[in-house]
Amino acid sequence: MADAVDAVTAYYAGDLDAPGQIPIDQPAPAFHHRVHEALRQTRPGDRLTYSELAALAGNPRAVRAAASACARNKTALFIPCHRVIHRDGSLGGFLYGQNVKASLLDRELSARGDDR
Length: 116
Description:
This protein is mainly alpha-helical. It has helices at 2-12, 30-40, 50-56, 63-71, 98-112; strands at 48-49, 84-85. It has a two-stranded parallel sheet with strand order 1-2. α3 (50-56) crosses α4.
């Protein structure tokens, strides 16, 4: 648990990749694990749609399953589902609320030093 706490502390200090270094093993169907891995490969601050996420996870037609994998994710920051947005550019849902989602995305863009 100390490693996870250290990773969160490092994230908020500017090391955006720290949470992705912590192994996560939450029970989920195989496709959800592929979605989680695709999310962990997404650059901090980048945004992708559920359709793009489904394609990255190996099944472009499984958009709802990709959304379900995000909705059931209980390890925010470690599996960064806050990086997924709706096709129209709106933030969409997030277990911890849209304000937290927006804050995480803003923090990542700011720490990255660009304004994608």
